[in-house]
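Hey, I'm writing a tutorial for new members on how sequence and structure tokens pair up, and I'd like a real worked example in the thread rather than a made-up one. If someone can provide the structure for the chain below, I'll link this post from the tutorial.
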Amino acid sequence: MTPESFHEQQRPHCQRQPEGYFAFVPPPLPPALPIDWELAGLLSEADRSVAELSGAGRLLPNPHLLIRPYLRREAVLSSLIEDTYAEVEELLLFDLRPASAPDKPSVREVANHIIALETGLKRLGVLPVSSRLIKELHALLLQTVRGGDSTKTPGEFRRSQNWIGRPGSTLSTATFVPPPPHLLDEALGAWENYFHAESAEPPLVKIALLHYQFEAIHPFLDGNGRIGRLLITLFLCERSILSEPLLYLSSFFERYRDDYYRLLLAVSTQGAWKDWVVYFLTGVRETAKEALENTARLVDLYNHYRKIMAQAKRLPSACAGVLDALFAAPMLSIAQHAQRHDESFQNVAKAVEFWQKHGLVKETTQQKRNRIFVAAPVLEVTRPKPAHPAP
């Protein structure tokens, strides 16, 4: 990376370091963003789509149960952007029986992503989005996985220079070099101040600016993209723009991955803020529409099985609990469910048998003991659909 690869107005931010390499030091937000009717119209459409999704979230019958499939989908697709992939069935099995799950680092990585997302959403009630929270989530993301060793300093901002480029690239040949470590505190402090400040930018534009800035600062040695995308949802929930955490942009970013990276880099090298914001708002609009459709399908499916329960002449006592558990995670062990919910094994077994008869679950292990049941109809609705092949 050299100043020659930057537009004239951006070159002052490409600064030579004492060691001889150049690093990009992004100026504080907000930038001067030209507003025109195209951008205004797109912002209006994105706002309307998010408002409709937020309204639907308020009507969810059991939001604490129906939200988890969205967290799982986001974790899968956000990780896939970084060429890390796990099948949903692998994640479900890992959650159910870690010792029986495939011994694949990618499964643990994506599972950690879910934990970090859930923790971030829970922590919003007691801790604002801050460097402290971000480091806490980063530690969860990298626990016991690739990048989780001490050299990657999980849960700590980097103390050495990193860079982005093709395999084998160096600081001199990198595509992008973020700020040096001694400037991180200042850059992150300005980022955090802007995050919480009252500003003229509409919230959806503001989070587009914040996402770029976080990626440009690149404060960790690993996991920057996943943490940065996670923060989008935390922002929307903290500002009550979403009633429930239903909007995740990784499906759009994964579908248009090349544009995602190209436009982020173009902000740094060319100051192309409008192109990035248009891309981001388009993603919000399209993803919100998709989430609204998926939420409706999930609620319809849930109500369908609730209706079956209401019409049953003899209903096992554990049926409702098993149904809710299957919508949260469509893979179930009778013994584990009985233990977690303080039910007898016999009661849960009768409930599972009831749902087998009504087509909700099928037994997958073909064993007499330690059987696992999968709710294929729920899995089909909630399964991520990547645009790119898994690595």
